[in-house]
Write a sequence for this structure.
C-alpha cells in the first residue's frame, strides 16, 4: 500500500510541477518525472506475479510477466528522446527569446502579434 | 501471403527515411527526393492492389515473424484503415511536389517527412495498444521537429507547446494502458472489445476498486490520443499548423490530426462507448463554433486557416458522435474532403506568403491580378470549405447535416459555424481581390512576382491535383457516398435516403438544398460586412485580448479528461 501511495504522490507532484512551474526546463523535468511515475507503477504491478526472470528455459515456470517490462523499456527510451528533444527546443527558444521563463516568452509572442 | 504485405506500409517509408539520410552523410549522393517519391509510388501501388479486397469486406491481419497473435507485433488493415492510408498518400504527393518547388529543404526534411508517413501508417494499422503507443510517438517526434524545421521563433514555440501537451497526453494514455493491462493481461484490440462489452470492474489485485475506475481507464486512453486530435479548443493546434512550413501545415491539418482520430474512432466502436460518442457530439458542435469565431478575428492568414481546422474537425466529431449511418458516413467523407480542401488552402495561401513575404491579411491584397491561376485554385478550396455545390465540402457537410436531424441543438450550432465559415473565407479572399480593409498596399512589383510562376510549376501541379480531388469528390459524390458507406457499414446507403442523392450517376440536389446554401451564403456575407465595419473591428480587438495561456491549456486537458470520465461513466 505504501508503494502505491508513494507512486501516487510522485504522479501528483509532477502533474503539479508541469502546470504550476514558470520555467520551461522545470516543466520538462516534471514531465519526465510524471513519465517515471507511470513507468514505476507499471513495473511494480508487473513484478507482483511470478518470481523468476522471464528467460525461457525448459523447466522454468514461475516467470514474471515480460510484457510490462518490454512496454516500459520502450516507454523509458521514448521518454528520454522526448526529454532530449524538449530540451533542444528550449535551447533554441532561449537563443531567440533570451529567456526560459514561460511568461516572458508569451509576452514577447503577444507583442509580436500586435 | 497477401496479409503480410500490409507490413510494407510502415516498412517502406521507415526504410526509405534512413536511405534519405545517406544524403546527409554523403551530400553528392542525391537520394532524398527520389526515395521520397519512390515511397509514394510503391505505397500507393500496394494500396491499389489491396483496394478491391477491402471493398469486398476483407480484413487483413498479420503478425511480424510468425508469432501467435498476442505475442508478436500485430497489424491489421480494415476498411477504415485503408481509407486513412489512402488519404495520407493522396495528400503526400501534392505536399512533396510543393516542397520540391519551394526549395530550401534538405535531406533531413525528407527523412522526417517519410518518418511521419511511416508513423501514421503504423498508427492506423496497429492491432495492439503497445504498437499504437510506439507509432504515436514516432509520428509525434517527426511532427514536432517538422513544425520547427525552419527554426523561426513562433514555430519553435508552437512546436514546443505541441510537444509538451501531447507528451502529457501520451503519459495519461500510458496510465490508461496500465489500468487496462492490469484488468485483462493483454493489450490487443479484440480483448479491449471483450473488456468493454462485459464491463468488468477493476479489482482482482489488491488495489481496492475505484468507483469510476473503468471509466477512468477508458477516458485516459481516449483523452491521451484526443490531445493529438484536438477534442478541445486547444491553442496548440492553430499555432503549430499556422507557423509550420507550408507543406507541413497542409499535412498536419490534412492528415495527421485525422489519423489519430481514426484510432479514437476504432476504439469507441470496439468498446461501444456511447458516452464518448455523446461527448464528441457536444464537443464537436462546440468547437465547430468556437473555432470559427476565433478564425473570424485573426489577421494572420495561416492561423486563420488553422482555426478553421479546429472548426471543421468539430463537424467530423459531431457527425461521428451522432452515430447514425448517414452521419457516420458523412463524418468519414468529411475527413477526406477536409483533407483535400484544407491542404489546397494551406498550399495556395502559402504560395502567396512565399511570393510576398507577408502573412497578414492587412498587408496583402489584390493578388488575383498577378496570380490568376492561383486565385482559381484558392477559390475552389474556399468554395469547398463553404459547402457550395458542386465541390466536395458540399457533399460531406450535407451528409452530416442530414444525419443530425435528430439533434437540433448540434444542427443549428453547426449551421451557425457554416455561416461563420462563409464570412471568414469572404474575408480571406481579400488576398486575391481588391481590399477595403488593407491599410497599406503591397509594394511588390507585379511583374517580378509573376516571373516566379514557372519555376514554381511543381507546386502548381500539386495544388491542381488537390483541386481536381475537390471537384471530383463533389461531382462524383454519389459514388463517394456509396464507397464510404460500403466500407464502413458493409452496404451502400445511397438508396436508403434517396432524398439527397440518386443511387446512380451524378449528385442531384433537392431545391431545399439550393435554398439552404443560398441562405448560408447570404447570412455569411452579412456577417462579413459586420466584421469589416467599425463596430465589428472593435469587437475583434476585444476578442483578441482573450488568450488561453499555455498553463491554462494543460488545465484544459485535465478538465476535458474529467468531463470525458463523467460522460463515459454515465452510460
Amino acid at each position: 500500500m505504501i508503494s502505491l501511495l508513494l507512486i501516487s504522490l510522485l504522479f501528483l507532484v509532477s502533474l503539479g510541477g508541469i502546470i504550476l512551474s514558470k520555467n520551461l526546463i522545470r516543466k520538462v523535468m516534471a514531465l519526465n518525472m510524471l513519465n517515471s511515475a507511470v513507468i514505476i507503477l507499471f513495473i511494480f504491478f508487473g513484478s507482483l506475479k511470478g518470481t523468476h526472470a522471464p528467460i525461457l528455459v525448459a523447466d522454468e515456470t514461475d516467470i514474471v510477466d515480460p510484457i510490462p517490462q518490454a512496454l516500459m523499456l520502450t516507454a523509458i527510451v521514448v521518454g528520454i528522446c522526448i526529454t532530449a528533444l524538449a530540451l533542444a527546443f528550449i535551447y533554441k527558444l532561449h537563443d531567440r527569446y533570451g529567456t526560459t521563463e514561460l511568461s516572458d516568452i508569451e509576452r514577447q509572442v503577444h507583442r509580436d502579434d500586435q | 501471403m497477401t496479409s503480410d504485405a500490409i507490413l510494407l506500409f510502415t516498412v517502406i517509408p521507415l526504410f526509405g527515411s534512413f536511405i534519405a539520410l545517406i544524403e546527409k552523410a554523403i551530400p553528392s549522393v542525391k537520394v532524398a527526393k527520389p526515395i521520397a517519391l519512390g515511397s509514394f509510388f510503391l505505397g500507393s501501388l500496394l494500396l491499389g492492389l489491396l483496394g478491391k479486397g477491402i471493398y469486398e469486406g476483407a480484413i487483413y491481419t498479420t503478425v511480424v515473424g510468425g508469432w501467435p497473435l498476442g505475442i508478436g507485433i500485430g497489424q491489421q488493415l480494415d476498411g477504415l484503415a485503408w481509407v486513412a492510408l489512402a488519404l495520407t498518400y493522396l495528400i503526400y504527393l501534392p505536399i512533396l511536389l510543393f516542397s520540391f518547388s519551394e526549395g530550401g529543404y534538405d535531406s533531413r526534411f525528407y527523412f522526417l517527412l517519410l518518418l511521419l508517413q511511416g508513423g501514421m501508417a503504423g498508427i492506423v494499422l496497429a492491432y495492439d495498444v503497445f504498437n499504437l503507443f510506439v507509432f504515436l510517438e514516432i509520428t509525434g517526434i517527426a511532427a514536432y521537429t517538422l513544425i520547427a524545421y525552419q527554426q523561426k521563433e513562433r514555430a519553435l514555440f508552437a512546436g514546443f507547446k505541441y510537444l509538451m501537451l501531447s507528451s502529457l497526453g501520451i503519459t495519461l494514455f500510458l496510465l490508461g494502458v496500465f489500468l487496462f493491462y492490469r484488468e485483462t493481461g493483454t493489450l490487443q484490440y479484440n480483448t479491449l472489445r471483450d473488456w468493454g462489452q462485459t464491463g468488468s470492474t477493476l479489482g482482482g489485485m489488491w488495489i481496492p476498486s475505484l468507483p469510476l475506475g473503468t471509466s477512468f481507464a477508458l477516458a485516459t486512453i481516449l483523452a491521451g490520443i484526443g490531445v493529438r486530435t484536438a477534442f478541445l479548443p486547444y491553442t496548440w493546434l492553430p499555432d503549430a499548423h499556422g507557423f509550420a512550413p507550408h507543406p507541413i501545415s497542409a499535412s498536419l491539418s490534412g492528415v495527421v490530426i485525422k489519423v489519430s482520430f481514426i484510432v479514437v474512432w476504432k476504439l469507441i466502436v470496439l468498446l461501444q462507448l456511447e458516452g464518448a460518442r455523446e461527448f464528441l457530439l457536444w464537443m464537436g458542435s462546440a468547437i465547430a463554433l468556437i473555432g470559427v469565431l476565433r478564425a473570424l478575428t485573426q489577421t494572420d492568414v495561416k492561423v486563420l486557416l488553422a482555426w478553421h481546422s479546429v472548426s471543421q474537425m468539430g463537424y467530423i466529431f459531431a457527425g461521428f458522435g451522432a452515430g447514425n449511418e448517414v452521419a457516420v458516413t458523412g463524418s468519414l467523407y468529411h475527413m477526406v474532403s477536409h483533407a483535400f480542401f484544407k491542404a489546397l488552402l494551406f498550399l495556395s495561401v502559402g504560395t502567396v506568403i512565399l511570393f510576398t513575404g507577408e502573412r497578414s491579411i492587412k498587408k496583402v491584397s489584390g493578388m488575383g491580378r498577378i496570380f490568376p491561376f492561383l486565385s482559381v485554385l484558392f477559390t475552389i478550396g474556399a468554395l469547398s470549405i463553404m459547402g457550395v455545390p458542386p465541390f466536395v465540402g458540399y457533399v460531406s457537410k450535407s451528409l452530416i447535416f442530414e444525419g443530425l436531424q435528430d439533434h437540433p441543438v448540434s444542427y443549428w450550432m453547426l449551421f451557425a459555424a457554416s455561416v461563420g465559415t462563409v464570412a471568414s473565407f469572404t474575408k480571406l479572399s481579400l488576398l486575391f481581390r481588391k481590399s477595403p480593409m488593407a491599410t497599406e498596399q503591397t509594394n511588390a512589383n507585379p511583374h517580378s512576382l509573376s516571373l516566379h510562376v514557372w519555376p514554381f510549376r511543381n507546386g502548381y501541379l500539386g495544388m491542381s491535383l488537390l483541386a481536381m480531388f475537390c471537384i471530383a469528390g463533389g461531382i462524383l459524390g454519389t459514388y463517394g457516398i456509396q464507397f464510404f458507406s460500403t466500407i464502413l457499414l458493409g452496404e451502400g446507403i445511397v438508396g436508403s435516403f434517396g432524398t439527397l442523392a440518386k443511387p446512380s450517376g451524378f449528385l442531384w440536389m433537392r431545391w431545399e438544398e439550393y435554398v439552404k446554401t443560398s441562405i448560408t451564403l447570404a447570412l455569411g456575407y452579412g456577417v462579413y460586412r459586420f466584421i469589416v465595419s467599425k463596430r465589428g473591428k472593435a469587437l475583434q480587438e476585444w476578442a483578441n485580448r482573450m488568450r488561453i495561456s499555455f498553463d491554462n491549456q494543460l488545465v484544459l486537458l485535465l478538465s476535458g479528461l474529467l468531463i470525458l470520465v463523467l460522460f463515459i461513466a454515465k452510460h
User: Anything to note?
Assistant: Strands of chain B lie at 60-63, 74-77. Chain B touches chain A at residues 130, 133-134, 137, 141, 144-145, 148, 151, 153-154, 156-157, 159-160, 163-164, 167-168, 171, 174-175, 177-178, 181-182, 185-187, 205, 207, 300, 544, 547, 549-551, 554-555, 558 (CB under 8 Å).
